[in-house]
Structure formats: structure tokens, C-alpha cells
Amino acid sequence: MLKVENLEKDFNKNKVLKGVNLELREGEITVIVGPSGGGKTTLLRCISGLTTPDNGSIIIGDKYLYRNGKAASKKTEIEIRKNIGLVFQNFNLFPHMSVLENIAEAPRVVLGIQREEAEKRAKEILGFLGLSDKEKNYPFELSGGQKQRVAIGRALAMEPKLICFDEPTSALDPGLSGEVANLIKKLSLEKSMTVLIITHDMTFATQVADRILSMDKGVLKKEHMYMDKNPAVLIN
């Protein structure tokens, strides 16, 4: 589903990514852990198309988003980015829109789907997320966990093949990490979604991951930890 080859990125002569290589299999939940400043967020931003790498390649499915540091054509980039969902650390919901509108907006604007069809899709997603009774509410009326689910729903509305999470539990009360872990596992199992997560929360990582990778100083370490999800116990 995703292949990253020799990815490099500098900021003001500071090499943040040092030849990163990564492969994600379809339907797999991969979590990258590591200290702040290690390059995790930059890697995620490159994969999601928000940051341009200086060198290396990113392949989504069978198409290059970047090849040896050169971006795909604008048309190809748009097609590829439709297959990538990103859930931001602080949710970034539109405060002036209802829950339903937050989820239906991108399919209407980006994909050109008619309002009726976009709202029908949004209602199905809210049902999947257990938020059918919140469609008319606004973000300020929701709990942190509910905002997180709406942010996930907004990403799902684009029907991506890969969904990326930037520190999905950092803005939540500690007791909600298990709820988010269960929802992400549900995405993988029921929607065959490929998931990439970056987090500092090792407890959350062991709850949700098929595979845990470690990243520090711009290097993705080769050692992998594979998880037995039921129960979530580390295995070799």
C-alpha cells in the first residue's frame, strides 16, 4: 500500500530525515514511536503530501507521489492524495459547521459529490462511529473523544486507502486512549484500512498496533516489534 525509499528532508541545514525506508502492507496498523524532534511528524507530512522531501521516493499503491525528490504532476498528486486520509493532532474541525457538515464538506468540494449523497455518506459514517445522535451538534458541544471520532469521520468521508494519525491521543484524557485504539482496530478489520500512526504513547501503541517501529534523529530503526492483539502482548 505504501513504500518509502531513501527519504531525506532538511530544514535550515538540519537533516530531519536521513534516508528513511518504510513499507506498509494493506490492512496493517503500523505505529512509529520515538522522542520529539526525531522526524516522525516530518515523515507523516511527507507521506500525506503536506511537506515536500528533498530526495527519495514515496509510492502509494502503484503510483509515485515523489520519485527521487521530484513531485508527481499536479493531476497525479491530486489523484494520489485522495487515497490518503490525515487525522490531525488537534482535530482541526470547522467550528462554524455541524458534525454532519464537517464530514460532508470535503466530498462535496473536493470530489464534486452532490450534497444529498455527501450527507448520506456522512450519516453512514456517523453510524459506524457511534455518533448518529450528534449530527446536528457543533464541535464546541462535543467531548474530546467525540471530536476525535468526528475528525476520523471527516478523513473516512474521502474513502482513503491509507489513513494517517498524528498523535491521536495527545489531546484526550488518558482514559480515552483505549476507545481510540478500538476504533482504529475497527477501521482495519471492518474497512480493510491501512493505518499509520505516530505517537509518544507506548501504552496506546501496544493496544492498537500490528507492528511498532522506532524513530530517532531522522532514522527509522530496522528492529520491528510485532503485536499479538488478543491479548496485546509483545511477541518476537
Report the CATH C-level class of the largest domain: Alpha Beta
Indicate the proportion of strand residues: 25-35%
User: Could you say which overall geometry the principal axes of the C-alpha atoms support?
Assistant: globular
pLDDT < 50 runs, ≥5 residues: 230-236
Main sheet summary: 7 strands, mixed
Pairing-aware structural class of the strands and helices? alpha/beta
Biggest sheet, spatial arrangement of strands: 7-8-9-3-10-11-12
Radius of gyration: 18 Å
State the order of secondary-structure elements, H for helix, E for strand. Answer: EEEHEEEHEHHHEHEHEEE
Q: Fraction of residues in helices? A: 25-40%
Q: In total, how many beta strands?
A: 12
The whole-number mean of residue pLDDT values reads 88
What is the name of the CATH architecture of the largest domain?
Answer: 3-Layer(aba) Sandwich
Essential attributes:
2 domains, 12 strands, alpha/beta, Rossmann fold, ABC_transporter-like_CS, disordered C terminus, seven-stranded mixed beta sheet, 236 residues, five-stranded antiparallel beta sheet, transport
Layout of secondary structure:
Elements: E1 2-11, E2 14-24, E3 29-33, H1 40-47, E4 55-60, E5 63-67, E6 70-71, H2 74-81, E7 84-87, H3 99-109, H4 115-129, H5 144-156, E8 162-166, H6 177-191, E9 194-199, H7 202-208, E10 211-216, E11 219-229, E12 232-235
Parallel strand pairs: 3-9, 3-10, 7-8, 8-9
Antiparallel strand pairs: 1-2, 1-4, 4-5, 5-6, 10-11, 11-12
Helix pairs in contact: 3-4, 3-5, 4-5, 6-7
